[in-house]
């Protein structure tokens, strides 16, 4: 049975953190909540039923001051139970406006989730490229170990033939032990990084997972495609839906009503017995004067629009500052890489000369290790700068919205 090593890419990590981060669950919750709220709004179109029951005692009642009229006054204790039905006939579109306002609110809330999840991509970048750097450092250290082991055999042969000092091999062996410590540290760091990334993206990963190097290109254009820009637009659309709802508030509403019940007395106040009764009719509700409450609410919404415009301007300013900083960082690292390459070329020449001197007993093993370490550190700096360059490019793209 064949075994294939697990592979993962940076783009896949982006997708996974967006899908699996706990906050992503709120999208479905918000949709369910919105559906329930809209259903509740739509119930205003259905008949509204009200059951009322009342028992009261009156200190005085109406009497007919005509002697021998035979009309008995109402009882002081009175009872009534009614069932009322109200049916909205005309509402001027206020229910639809309320539903649209809720839909606009949902879109804004979902975009806010998207913005928060998008910001997690920079955390993914930091972890992913730290793992790549860890892998590169491991490979470089392995090459140093191989070179030292080869050199140790040469030194032992030189000691055997008397061309080198007897303690020279001990110096190299001590350096190899230090490398073992460095391997342990690198492996421990990688375990922590991989476990942290796995937790963040919600996917099992282990140290054997192959993290593919991304090929990152950047576009030096001022165009920003961040989800925050869409969020600002949705906020304005939500405000506009609230404006439409306010416009519908003062439109007259027409309702039909019917009330049936039993009471003592009923509608005939002179009949002292329990009697059924009913009333039907139509009524108009119209708030003809609200002390400019509606107008002030609309003015408040206009201010909210201005606030959103201001937030947009601030975001664009700060985002452009970040893009400029990323660009400067990219340029700086690129310059470092050029110098790193030159340093490595020189260090290799020095080490080559040192190897010859070591073979002829001109220098000690300590001097050789010093020069080998200098080359290793220069090569390590180069791979660090290469990874930092790709990280800076990835962060530039995230800041730009690509």
UniProtKB/TrEMBL annotation:
UniProt keywords, alphabetically: Cell outer membrane, Membrane, Transmembrane, Transmembrane beta strand, Transport
The keyword Methyltransferase belongs to this UniProt entry's keyword annotation: no
Subcellular location field: Cell outer membrane
Molecular function terms from GO: efflux transmembrane transporter activity; porin activity
Signal sequence range: none
Keyword Phosphoprotein: no
Annotated Pfam families: OEP
Cross-referenced InterPro entries: OMP_efflux, TolC-like
Gene Ontology CC: cell outer membrane; efflux pump complex
Similarity annotation: Belongs to the outer membrane factor (OMF) (TC 1.B.17) family.
PANTHER family, per the entry: OUTER MEMBRANE PROTEIN TOLC (PTHR30026:SF20)
Full protein name: Outer membrane efflux protein
Species per Swiss-Prot/TrEMBL record: Xanthomarina gelatinilytica
Lineage: Bacteria, Pseudomonadati, Bacteroidota, Flavobacteriia, Flavobacteriales
């Amino acid at each position: 049975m064949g075994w294939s090593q697990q592979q993962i890419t940076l783009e896949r990590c982006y997708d996974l953190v967006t899908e699996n981060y706990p906050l992503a669950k709120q999208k479905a919750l918000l949709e369910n909540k919105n559906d329930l709220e809209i259903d509740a709004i739509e119930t205003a179109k259905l008949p509204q039923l009200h059951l009322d029951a009342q028992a009261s005692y009156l200190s005085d009642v109406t009497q007919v001051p005509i002697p021998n009229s035979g009309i008995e006054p109402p009882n002081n204790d009175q009872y009534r139970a009614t069932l009322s039905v109200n049916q909205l006939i005309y509402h001027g579109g206020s229910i639809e406006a309320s539903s649209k306002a809720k839909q606009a609110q949902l879109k804004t809330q979902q975009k806010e989730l998207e913005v928060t999840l998008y910001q997690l991509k920079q955390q993914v970048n930091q972890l992913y490229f730290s793992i790549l750097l860890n892998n590169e450092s491991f490979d470089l250290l392995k090459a140093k170990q191989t070179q030292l082991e080869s050199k140790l055999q040469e030194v032992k042969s030189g000691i055997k033939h008397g061309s080198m000092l007897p303690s020279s091999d001990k110096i190299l062996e001590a350096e190899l032990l230090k490398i073992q410590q460095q391997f342990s540290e690198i492996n421990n760091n990688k375990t922590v990084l991989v476990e942290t990334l796995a937790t963040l993206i919600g996917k099992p990963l282990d140290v054997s997972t192959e993290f593919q190097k991304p090929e990152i290109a950047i576009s030096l254009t001022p165009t920003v495609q961040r989800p925050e820009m869409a969020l600002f637009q949705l906020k304005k659309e939500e405000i506009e839906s609230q404006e439409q709802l306010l416009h519908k508030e003062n439109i007259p509403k027409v309702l039909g009503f019917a009330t049936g019940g039993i009471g003592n007395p009923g509608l005939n106040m002179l009949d002292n017995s329990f009697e059924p009764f009913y009333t039907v009719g139509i009524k108009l509700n119209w708030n003809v004067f609200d002390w400019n409450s509606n107008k002030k609410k609309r003015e408040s919404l206009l201010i909210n629009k201005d606030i959103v415009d201001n937030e947009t301007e601030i975001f664009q300013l700060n985002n452009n500052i970040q893009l400029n900083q990323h660009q400067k960082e990219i340029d700086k690292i690129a310059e470092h890489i050029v110098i790193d390459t030159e340093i490595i070329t020189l260090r290799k020449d020095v080490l080559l000369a040192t190897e010859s001197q070591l073979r002829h007993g001109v220098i000690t093993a300590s001097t050789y290790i010093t020069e080998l370490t200098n080359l290793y550190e220069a090569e390590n700096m180069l791979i660090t700068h290469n990874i930092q360059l790709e990280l800076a490019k990835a962060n530039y793209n995230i800041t730009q919205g690509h």
